[in-house]
């Protein structure tokens, strides 16, 4: 048994003040990877105040000869299922993807392998684990024909969380003393917080000045990790850490550790200062919006409420009415009140000084279907973007069921409003918006790397696709910037039309894919299953794709090859095997239209549902083999037709139980072969000569027919792959129909009504009537 340990973050968590919890899920059998549905997904929930997360990954396999060495890949991600790409395919254009954090678990000589993965200070909430085997081979395996090996994966989650934790209130020093164990703190970050400043003041180590403290701020999120670690040893006092745009409306965890050894003592005071937030019960000061022209066609039919948040601690509501009325609402009370003109208000405070405002654009969320959401501004038209304040839109993707689709963002600027020197920059971030457009355009907040977009006179459209967005509030912030004349930019305003959707699959996986909804317990997520050689997350990678001509050629080969069944139909009719001819005609018809419906892309024709055509095709193929073998046995007419009917019913039942099981069809056919062989052996012993008696029958019919059937079975069971399916399966059609035409026996020789075959010594004969089955002695 192999055992491996991997660590992410700080090595060890102490035991004092911590409690342990254990979570487990039922094991699942792994599959070789071909698309996202091949991966096995597990969903865990990490409780708040967790300081250590340990994954125990156990992989086992069968001990049979079919089991070979394999390497299992395990992916981790917090907030959403991991976005993986084992096949190395291309993602759709404008898609933003981070490489997943993965661990490889080898299985070689030992049938059991364990891996331990440690994550210090993990983010609370949903964590997802996805596991799969290496990419699948192109060979088409028949179920039940060859032995298989079961690889089983089971993850366990062990957590240690804090039960003794100190709360840091804004602007209130919190004294702390470090001895041998870390000190766990947390501070609440309210909405509309622009910056968070953390300070360690008055540090004293063993009675002397100094600050040998390591401060860990924020959670670990995989695959990206933006946790901040501040080492205050040797740094000037007070030791500070400034966090721009910290995550809103949540607790932020802090861990302080002493660096002086197990017997040293460090004393300090922790101070948190919030800039631009609403906290402490302070009454806000309004920050006015500068007037901006609005196109008459863009005026809303209902009052549009814009929340303007100012630094520090203030929010006002300024409605834009279609009429000229002025009315102000108190944001905290929610009731209308007389609105005085606040033209020069705004109070400096916190860090940095000077007022700071943002325009909070209200957004409506419309749930349209499973993992399908439409976001749009309240006025259903556009968002006004200016240069002095960023416009922020909040997208609520925090229900826990929104992370299984793809978030698509499309921006389009008005052609008449955007000029050559102006640029509309936008950032899409989770947890908190990016607000520092005047100093940087990297879209980086305290613990998240945002996704940038831009609009200009040369590019008035911008698109962004985020597969499996994290469960959180997402913020789209926009601001107008000018590269030359900033004074003209201050008076300018650009109306940006936004199209914001959460969809299960991008473009419904296109014409060469199928969007499938997957489920793990109560969690739903979507993935694309591609066809015709197309690959990728949205079936847009055409590196191995078939051309339209190749698709048409494949369809023609698979359908027209069934015309070979005209040969056994003609032979059956000529020899008065009318039931057999009907079976061959049924097989030819449904096999032709099943393969016409089974093709992807443009060359598709479905006269019935796909499932119905597939069932009829499989039923016809099995029944055709069954009746051909029984016809070769030359049974009595009544017995033959009884076996025809019973065999067809058994094949129909077996296909309903398991349509892909090879033995469900092979079993009845082998039984028919045993009946035929028994009848032939009986006739050989009864007649004292080989049956059939004619060497021409063996040389020109039986041996060629058996050879064609043997080659067809070999191709069907061992040579078909995804790439050569269209011509190897067409050859199977030809060989199956050709062997049936050759193996059908000739019609029985006509006999007289009374055939006297045996003479008795007393000049009498025993005569038999084959039609009436009567005997007489003459």
From TrEMBL:
Name the family the entry cites.
Answer: Belongs to the TMEM8 family.
> Main subcellular localization, coarse class?
membrane
One GO location term (cellular component): plasma membrane
Q: Which UniProt keywords apply?
A: Cell membrane, Disulfide bond, EGF-like domain, Membrane, Transmembrane, Transmembrane helix
Question: Which InterPro entries does this UniProt record tie to the protein?
Answer: EGF, NGX6/PGAP6/MYMK
Which Pfam family, an example, fits this chain? DUF3522
What are the disulphide bonds in this sequence? 505-515, 530-539
Q: Give the UniProt subcellular location, in the record's own words.
A: Cell membrane
**Domain (EGF-like) ranges:** 501-540
**By what name is this protein known?**
Post-GPI attachment to proteins 6
**Which residue ranges traverse the bilayer?**
556-578, 638-656, 662-682, 698-719
How is it placed in the membrane, per its record?
Multi-pass membrane protein
């Amino acid at each position: 048994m192999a055992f491996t340990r991997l660590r992410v973050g700080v090595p060890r968590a102490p035991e004092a003040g911590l409690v342990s919890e254990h979570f487990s899920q039922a094991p699942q059998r792994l599959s070789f990877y071909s698309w996202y549905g091949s991966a096995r997904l597990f969903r865990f929930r990490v409780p708040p105040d967790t300081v250590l997360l340990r994954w125990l990954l156990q992989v086992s396999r069968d001990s049979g000869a079919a089991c070979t060495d394999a390497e299992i890949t395990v992916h981790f991600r917090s907030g959403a299922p991991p976005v993986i790409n084992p096949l190395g395919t291309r993602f759709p254009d404008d898609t933003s993807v981070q490489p997943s954090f993965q661990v490889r678990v080898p299985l070689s000589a030992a049938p059991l392998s364990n891996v331990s993965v440690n994550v210090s200070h993990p983010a609370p909430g949903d964590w997802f684990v996805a596991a799969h085997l290496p990419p699948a081979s192109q060979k088409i395996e028949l179920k039940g024909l060859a032995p298989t090996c079961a690889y089983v994966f089971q993850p366990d989650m062990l957590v240690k969380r804090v039960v003794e934790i100190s709360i840091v209130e804004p602007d209130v020093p919190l004294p702390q003393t470090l001895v041998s164990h870390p000190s766990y703190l947390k501070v609440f970050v309210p909405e509309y917080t622009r910056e968070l400043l953390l300070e360690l003041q008055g540090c004293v180590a063993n009675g002397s000045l100094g600050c040998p403290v390591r401060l860990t701020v924020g959670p670990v999120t995989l695959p990206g990790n933006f946790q901040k670690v501040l080492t205050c040893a040797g740094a000037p006092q007070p030791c500070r850490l400034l966090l721009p745009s910290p995550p809103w409306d949540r607790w932020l965890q802090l861990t302080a550790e002493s660096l002086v050894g197990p017997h040293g003592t460090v004393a300090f005071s922790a101070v948190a200062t919030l800039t631009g937030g609403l906290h402490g019960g302070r009454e806000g000061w309004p920050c006015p919006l500068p007037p901006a022209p609005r196109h008459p066609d863009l005026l809303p039919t209902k009052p549009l409420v814009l929340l303007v948040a100012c630094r520090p601690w203030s929010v006002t509501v300024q409605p834009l009415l279609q009429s000229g009325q002025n009315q102000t609402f108190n944001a905290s009370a929610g009731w209308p009140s007389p609105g005085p003109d606040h033209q020069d208000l705004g109070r400096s405070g916190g860090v940095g000084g000077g007022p700071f405002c943002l325009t909070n654009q209200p957004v409506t969320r419309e749930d349209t279907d499973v993992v399908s959401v439409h976001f749009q501004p309240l006025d259903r038209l556009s968002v006004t973007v200016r240069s002095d304040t960023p416009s922020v839109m909040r997208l609520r993707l925090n229900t826990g069921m929104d992370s299984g689709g793809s978030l698509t963002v499309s921006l389009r600027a008005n052609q008449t409003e955007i000029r050559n020197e102006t640029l509309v920059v936008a950032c899409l971030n989770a947890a908190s918006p990016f607000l520092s457009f005047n100093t940087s355009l990297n879209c980086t907040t305290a613990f998240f790397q945002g996704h940038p977009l831009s609009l200009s006179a040369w590019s008035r459209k911008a698109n962004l696709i985020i597969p499996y967005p994290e469960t959180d509030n997402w913020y789209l912030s926009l601001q107008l910037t000018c590269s030359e004349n900033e004074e003209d930019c201050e008076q300018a305003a650009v109306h940006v039309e936004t199209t914001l959707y959460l969809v299960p699959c991008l473009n419904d996986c296109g014409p060469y894919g199928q969007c499938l909804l997957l489920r793990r317990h109560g969690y739903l997520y979507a993935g694309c299953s591609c066809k015709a050689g197309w690959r990728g997350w949205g079936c847009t990678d055409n590196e191995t794709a078939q051309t339209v001509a190749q698709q048409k050629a494949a369809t023609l080969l698979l359908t027209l090859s069934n015309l070979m069944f005209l040969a056994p139909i003609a032979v059956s009719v000529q020899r008065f095997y009318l039931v057999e001819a009907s079976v061959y005609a049924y097989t030819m018809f449904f096999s032709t239209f099943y393969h016409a419906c089974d093709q992807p892309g443009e060359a598709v024709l479905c006269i019935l549902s796909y499932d119905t055509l597939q069932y009829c095709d499989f039923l016809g193929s099995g029944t055709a083999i069954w009746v051909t073998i029984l016809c070769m046995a030359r049974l009595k007419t009544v017995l033959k037709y009884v076996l025809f009917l019973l065999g067809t019913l058994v094949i129909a039942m077996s296909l309903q139980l398991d349509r892909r099981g090879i033995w469900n069809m092979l079993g009845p056919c082998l039984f028919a072969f045993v009946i035929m062989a028994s009848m032939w052996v009986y006739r050989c012993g009864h007649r004292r000569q080989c049956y059939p008696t004619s060497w021409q029958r063996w040389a020109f019919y039986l041996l060629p027919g058996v050879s064609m059937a043997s080659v067809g079975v070999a191709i069907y069971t061992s040579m078909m792959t995804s790439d050569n399916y269209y011509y190897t399966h067409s050859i199977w059609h030809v060989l199956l129909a050709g062997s049936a035409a050759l193996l059908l026996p000739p019609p029985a020789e006509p006999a007289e009504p009374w055939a006297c075959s045996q003479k008795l010594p007393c000049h009498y004969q025993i005569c038999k009537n084959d039609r009436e089955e009567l005997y007489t002695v003459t």
